Amino acid sequence: xxxxxxxxxxxxxxxxxxxxxxxxxxxxxxxVVELLRDHVxxxxxxxxxxPPLINAMDQxxxxxxxxxxxxxxxxxxxxxxxxxTAPFFNPRYIGHMASDLLLPGLIAQLVTxxxxxxxxxxxxxxxxxxxxxxxxxxLAAMFGYNTATRHKPCAWGHITSGxxxxxxxxxxxxxxxxYWPLAAAAGMRDAGFDPxxxxxxxxxxxxxxxxxLFNLSxxxxxxxxxxLLAKIHAALSTEAVSxxxxxxxxxxxxxLGMAGFQQRHTDFNTPCVMVPxxxxxxxxxxxxxxxxxxxNLISIGVNERMRMDPQALAxxxxxxxxxxxxxxxxxxxxxxxxxxxxxxxxxxxxxRQRWRKQGLNFAIHVDAAWGGxxxxxxxxxxxxxxxxxxxxxxxxxxxxxxxxxxFAELRxxxxxxxxxxxxxxxxxxxxxxxxxxxxxxDFVSQRAxxxxxxxxxxxxxxxARRFRNLGQYILEGSxxxxxxxxxxxxxxxxxxxxxxxxxxxxQTIRNCxxxxxxxxxxxxxLAGQARxxxxxxxxxxxxxxxxxxxxxxxLARMNRFAGRIYEQLRVGAHVDMHTRAWFGSRTxxxxxxxxxxxxxxxxxELDLDPASFTLHPDASGEQADNxxxxxxxLMNPWLSGCSGTGLNYLDRYCRYLIELVxxxxxx
Length: 667
Ligand SMILES: *Cc1c(COP(=O)(O)O)cnc(C)c1O
Prior knowledge:
The mean pLDDT is 95. This protein has two domains: 1-50 and 89-101 and 507-667, Aspartate Aminotransferase, domain 1, CATH 3.90.1150; 138-493, 3-Layer(aba) Sandwich (Aspartate Aminotransferase, domain 2), CATH 3.40.640.10. By secondary structure, it is an alpha/beta fold. It contains 23 helices and eleven strands. A hairpin with an 8-residue loop joins strand 8 (530-533) and strand 9 (542-549). Pyridoxal-5'-phosphate is lined by residues 162-164, 167, 280, 282, 333, 336-337, 367, 369-370, 419, 431.
């Protein structure tokens, strides 16, 4: 496939969304009404012989009419208030991570809500729970995980309310798996049970140190647990097995709590989690929530592209190793929330290979809440990885070698977060957690199952049973089937490969490339008036800009200036949306997140006094500890591709920005 011709692309895009002018209103109305009627007939046909319960005469009573009037009044009030919502669907909206919704998902969500399935268990969702698990398989395949049950490890995944919950769940699972050997050894010591030599563990299991027991890979622990259970079952009576199982369960950190566990394992330090400086704040929340404490979240420095610096990671790992500080997980971000940058996942994987040999092991989770769907650009229709050379023919700059390798090596991560409600263009309330090895679920059932070494066909039955009781294996309980149905229909209509979903995602990248290539025009137009720079070259589809009035040397003043520009682009409570010509967002780059050389480079490019960018600003009002940036999320597919109409939203936005800057510069 050659680079998309504008006209073909426009035609391809035309039925996908309701549209900024609601051009597809008839299509939406027709299908929704059709499926609404279908729902009505379904109700009537559950037991067609039952007479209606709502009396038609009552429908004309005063009380009935009064209720209807009250309801309409309130709904009209709501509808009126909703008019001040941020207009995500419009190409003038380039602020947060939201855009128009794909029609298949939108309609699926609306229609499924009428049936209201609850995905806590298949008893409350006999039809749609299966679709949720299928979505998990579709996303897993897009990331390159194995989804064939005859091969091991086999991936699984499910829908969450969003990326935050999926991130929480990743650590919840890692904790359950990686602490398990410590509990098993303690429980066996208490019971005086010696399993003898093991295939999945070198040395004497019961006398191994906590450090050794913790530094096993996810797959090793899974194998170890199965092996130990087989030994227990072979050696003990059924009664003794359940007694020992209870002893092990009682030793788990989930049973004892962090404090109780620590009291029994005084030589074992609290594990840390490593994230890049650019990580989403949900990671700090996750450490607080799970009781590890935010002090055990270690921020790894980033490079000039805002990607995790592998050398900084290596240094942090060396320190952890020297201090015998266990590393629960290293998190790589695939599409940072503020810059869209792609961490070098391949390098994180390579670091793990290296440290495993030193006895230090860690799980890898990829937070691809934003960039996960970009993986569809890299997949052909049969699921194979497209070569870098082939991809390079379709874009001007994307993907850089570093970005390509990050996507190509995703399959080595232990789990991945991805948000269908971001770059998946489905309604909010739809994130996803995907794990490389579904056997991790052995460790989290709320009803501990110490069944052992099932035959392969029995295992399939067991997994099917588990996933039918989904609420037992995930953080959430009751949850809407409508969200899963939305993602499922979307992936059915637009499969997760480069010709379908990838074509849409590819357009977001092309828009970013267009903006990137035209920034010189913006700078040239403001020459002599202000400096406009892009502090970090984009990896994907987000672009940040810094703007400094000519002659200004103080960072704090520049920030105040940019803040005034941003005020014109901002929406929020108590701002009249209709007074806005464009909708943007902003971000702050903190001095603490940058290396000295990077901070110096940015000050030089902006012609600012380097002393005005400091960790500890004085009271002069000239210094600041952060740089204020305008942030642009370019996910609307129509931003640059409206040939024939003369409407190029990115050009228009640049003209508007020039106008805003000039207006703000007036004395
Ligand atoms: C958005 C985002 C999250 C949080 O996801 P929610 O769906 O908002 O809960 C986490 N990580 C990254 C990288 C994100 O962009």
